[in-house]
Write a structure and sequence with these properties.
Length: 210
Protein backbone atom coordinates (compact mmCIF):
# COMPACT_ATOMS: atom_id res chain seq x y z
CA UNK A 1 0.00 0.00 0.00
CA UNK A 2 2.91 2.32 0.75
CA UNK A 3 4.37 1.79 -2.72
CA UNK A 4 0.95 2.15 -4.38
CA UNK A 5 0.56 5.57 -2.80
CA UNK A 6 3.63 6.81 -4.69
CA UNK A 7 3.46 4.93 -7.99
CA UNK A 8 -0.21 4.15 -8.75
CA UNK A 9 -1.99 7.39 -7.87
CA UNK A 10 -1.24 10.99 -7.00
CA UNK A 11 -2.39 12.66 -3.80
CA UNK A 12 -3.00 16.39 -4.09
CA UNK A 13 -2.19 18.83 -1.32
CA UNK A 14 -5.21 19.98 0.66
CA UNK A 15 -6.71 23.12 -0.95
CA UNK A 16 -7.69 24.29 2.54
CA UNK A 17 -4.07 24.11 3.67
CA UNK A 18 -2.87 25.92 0.55
CA UNK A 19 -5.41 28.71 1.12
CA UNK A 20 -4.28 29.07 4.72
CA UNK A 21 -0.76 29.64 3.39
CA UNK A 22 -1.92 32.25 0.87
CA UNK A 23 -1.11 29.94 -2.07
CA UNK A 24 -4.37 30.49 -3.95
CA UNK A 25 -3.08 29.56 -7.40
CA UNK A 26 -1.90 26.18 -6.10
CA UNK A 27 -5.22 25.65 -4.30
CA UNK A 28 -7.14 26.22 -7.55
CA UNK A 29 -4.77 23.88 -9.40
CA UNK A 30 -5.35 21.19 -6.77
CA UNK A 31 -9.14 21.52 -7.10
CA UNK A 32 -8.90 21.24 -10.89
CA UNK A 33 -6.62 18.22 -10.57
CA UNK A 34 -9.05 16.47 -8.23
CA UNK A 35 -11.98 17.28 -10.53
CA UNK A 36 -10.10 15.95 -13.57
CA UNK A 37 -9.23 12.75 -11.71
CA UNK A 38 -12.94 12.22 -11.02
CA UNK A 39 -13.89 13.10 -14.63
CA UNK A 40 -15.63 16.27 -13.55
CA UNK A 41 -15.22 19.96 -14.30
CA UNK A 42 -15.16 22.90 -11.92
CA UNK A 43 -15.95 26.57 -12.37
CA UNK A 44 -13.37 27.63 -9.79
CA UNK A 45 -10.61 29.96 -10.96
CA UNK A 46 -8.07 32.11 -9.18
CA UNK A 47 -9.96 35.28 -10.18
CA UNK A 48 -13.22 33.96 -8.72
CA UNK A 49 -11.43 32.86 -5.56
CA UNK A 50 -9.86 36.29 -5.17
CA UNK A 51 -13.23 37.94 -5.73
CA UNK A 52 -14.87 35.81 -3.04
CA UNK A 53 -12.16 35.84 -0.42
CA UNK A 54 -9.97 38.75 -1.37
CA UNK A 55 -6.42 38.73 -2.60
CA UNK A 56 -3.98 36.61 -0.71
CA UNK A 57 -2.27 38.85 1.78
CA UNK A 58 1.34 38.46 2.73
CA UNK A 59 1.58 38.95 6.49
CA UNK A 60 4.49 38.68 8.82
CA UNK A 61 4.38 35.70 11.15
CA UNK A 62 2.90 36.59 14.48
CA UNK A 63 4.69 35.61 17.64
CA UNK A 64 2.02 34.29 20.00
CA UNK A 65 2.44 33.09 23.54
CA UNK A 66 1.41 29.58 24.49
CA UNK A 67 -1.67 30.94 26.25
CA UNK A 68 -2.73 32.92 23.18
CA UNK A 69 -2.33 29.85 20.96
CA UNK A 70 -4.51 27.78 23.33
CA UNK A 71 -7.11 30.56 23.47
CA UNK A 72 -7.22 30.82 19.68
CA UNK A 73 -7.78 27.07 19.35
CA UNK A 74 -10.48 27.06 22.03
CA UNK A 75 -12.33 29.81 20.17
CA UNK A 76 -13.23 27.19 17.56
CA UNK A 77 -15.46 25.56 20.17
CA UNK A 78 -17.45 28.67 21.06
CA UNK A 79 -21.21 28.40 21.66
CA UNK A 80 -21.81 30.38 18.46
CA UNK A 81 -20.22 27.58 16.48
CA UNK A 82 -21.73 24.65 18.38
CA UNK A 83 -25.28 25.97 18.88
CA UNK A 84 -26.32 25.53 15.20
CA UNK A 85 -25.66 21.80 15.56
CA UNK A 86 -28.64 21.66 17.94
CA UNK A 87 -30.91 24.04 16.04
CA UNK A 88 -33.60 21.35 15.71
CA UNK A 89 -34.41 18.18 17.63
CA UNK A 90 -33.46 15.96 14.70
CA UNK A 91 -30.21 17.83 14.08
CA UNK A 92 -29.32 17.65 17.78
CA UNK A 93 -29.95 13.91 17.81
CA UNK A 94 -27.78 13.41 14.73
CA UNK A 95 -25.02 15.51 16.30
CA UNK A 96 -25.07 13.41 19.48
CA UNK A 97 -25.03 10.18 17.47
CA UNK A 98 -22.07 11.34 15.38
CA UNK A 99 -20.17 12.36 18.51
CA UNK A 100 -20.97 9.03 20.16
CA UNK A 101 -19.82 7.09 17.08
CA UNK A 102 -16.50 8.89 16.87
CA UNK A 103 -15.95 8.63 20.64
CA UNK A 104 -16.43 4.86 20.55
CA UNK A 105 -14.31 4.53 17.40
CA UNK A 106 -11.60 6.58 19.11
CA UNK A 107 -11.62 4.19 22.06
CA UNK A 108 -12.22 0.90 20.28
CA UNK A 109 -9.73 1.17 17.43
CA UNK A 110 -6.56 1.80 19.49
CA UNK A 111 -7.63 -0.56 22.29
CA UNK A 112 -7.81 -3.45 19.83
CA UNK A 113 -5.45 -2.66 16.96
CA UNK A 114 -2.66 -0.88 18.83
CA UNK A 115 -2.44 -3.70 21.40
CA UNK A 116 -3.05 -6.57 18.98
CA UNK A 117 0.62 -7.73 19.09
CA UNK A 118 0.37 -7.97 22.90
CA UNK A 119 -2.89 -9.93 22.65
CA UNK A 120 -1.33 -12.31 20.15
CA UNK A 121 1.81 -12.75 22.26
CA UNK A 122 -0.29 -13.81 25.26
CA UNK A 123 -2.31 -16.33 23.28
CA UNK A 124 -1.81 -19.88 24.47
CA UNK A 125 -2.06 -19.35 28.20
CA UNK A 126 1.08 -19.41 30.37
CA UNK A 127 3.50 -20.01 27.52
CA UNK A 128 4.28 -16.68 25.73
CA UNK A 129 4.27 -16.88 21.95
CA UNK A 130 7.60 -16.34 20.18
CA UNK A 131 8.00 -12.81 18.74
CA UNK A 132 8.49 -14.22 15.24
CA UNK A 133 5.11 -15.98 15.44
CA UNK A 134 3.45 -12.90 16.92
CA UNK A 135 4.56 -10.60 14.10
CA UNK A 136 3.93 -13.26 11.47
CA UNK A 137 0.33 -13.45 12.69
CA UNK A 138 0.15 -9.66 12.84
CA UNK A 139 1.34 -9.45 9.22
CA UNK A 140 -1.24 -12.07 8.17
CA UNK A 141 -3.98 -10.06 9.89
CA UNK A 142 -2.90 -6.86 8.10
CA UNK A 143 -2.69 -8.53 4.69
CA UNK A 144 -6.11 -10.18 5.03
CA UNK A 145 -7.61 -6.77 5.82
CA UNK A 146 -6.43 -5.15 2.56
CA UNK A 147 -9.16 -6.59 0.26
CA UNK A 148 -11.82 -5.17 2.58
CA UNK A 149 -11.39 -1.67 1.21
CA UNK A 150 -11.62 -2.96 -2.37
CA UNK A 151 -14.84 -4.83 -1.63
CA UNK A 152 -16.31 -1.72 -0.03
CA UNK A 153 -15.65 0.12 -3.29
CA UNK A 154 -18.02 -2.25 -5.11
CA UNK A 155 -20.68 -2.83 -2.46
CA UNK A 156 -21.46 0.89 -2.04
CA UNK A 157 -22.67 0.89 -5.65
CA UNK A 158 -24.94 -2.15 -5.29
CA UNK A 159 -28.64 -1.31 -5.32
CA UNK A 160 -30.44 -1.70 -1.97
CA UNK A 161 -27.10 -1.93 -0.14
CA UNK A 162 -25.21 1.28 -0.87
CA UNK A 163 -23.13 3.17 1.68
CA UNK A 164 -25.59 2.75 4.56
CA UNK A 165 -26.01 -0.98 4.12
CA UNK A 166 -22.29 -1.60 3.64
CA UNK A 167 -21.17 0.34 6.69
CA UNK A 168 -24.02 -0.99 8.88
CA UNK A 169 -23.37 -4.66 8.07
CA UNK A 170 -19.58 -4.40 8.25
CA UNK A 171 -19.73 -2.55 11.58
CA UNK A 172 -22.04 -5.13 13.18
CA UNK A 173 -19.91 -8.02 11.91
CA UNK A 174 -16.73 -6.30 13.11
CA UNK A 175 -18.19 -5.91 16.60
CA UNK A 176 -19.25 -9.57 16.73
CA UNK A 177 -15.80 -10.74 15.61
CA UNK A 178 -14.04 -8.62 18.24
CA UNK A 179 -16.13 -10.34 20.93
CA UNK A 180 -15.40 -13.73 19.38
CA UNK A 181 -11.69 -12.92 19.51
CA UNK A 182 -11.88 -12.87 23.32
CA UNK A 183 -13.57 -16.26 23.67
CA UNK A 184 -10.44 -18.38 23.41
CA UNK A 185 -6.68 -17.94 23.97
CA UNK A 186 -5.82 -20.50 21.30
CA UNK A 187 -3.33 -18.84 18.86
CA UNK A 188 -5.00 -20.25 15.75
CA UNK A 189 -8.44 -19.19 16.99
CA UNK A 190 -7.26 -15.64 17.68
CA UNK A 191 -5.45 -15.40 14.36
CA UNK A 192 -8.61 -16.45 12.52
CA UNK A 193 -10.86 -13.93 14.21
CA UNK A 194 -8.33 -11.08 14.19
CA UNK A 195 -7.93 -11.59 10.42
CA UNK A 196 -11.69 -11.64 9.84
CA UNK A 197 -12.07 -8.58 12.06
CA UNK A 198 -9.42 -6.71 10.05
CA UNK A 199 -11.18 -7.64 6.81
CA UNK A 200 -14.61 -6.33 7.84
CA UNK A 201 -13.09 -3.38 9.69
CA UNK A 202 -11.43 -2.23 6.49
CA UNK A 203 -14.78 -2.44 4.71
CA UNK A 204 -16.22 -0.16 7.38
CA UNK A 205 -13.34 2.33 7.23
CA UNK A 206 -13.30 2.20 3.45
CA UNK A 207 -16.85 3.55 3.43
CA UNK A 208 -16.39 5.88 6.39
CA UNK A 209 -13.37 7.73 5.00
CA UNK A 210 -14.16 7.51 1.27
Amino acid sequence: MFMCRFFLFHLYESPKFLLSQGRQAEAVAAVHGIAYKNKKTTWLSEDILNEIGGLAAVEEKQKLSAGEIVKRNLDKFSTQRIAPLFATKKLGLMTCLVWFCWATIGMGYPLFNAFLPQYLSNAGGDQPTAPSIVYRNYAITSIVGVPGSLIAYYTVNIKYIGRKGTIAMSTVITGILVFCFTISTDPSFQLTFSSLEAFFQNIMYGVLYA
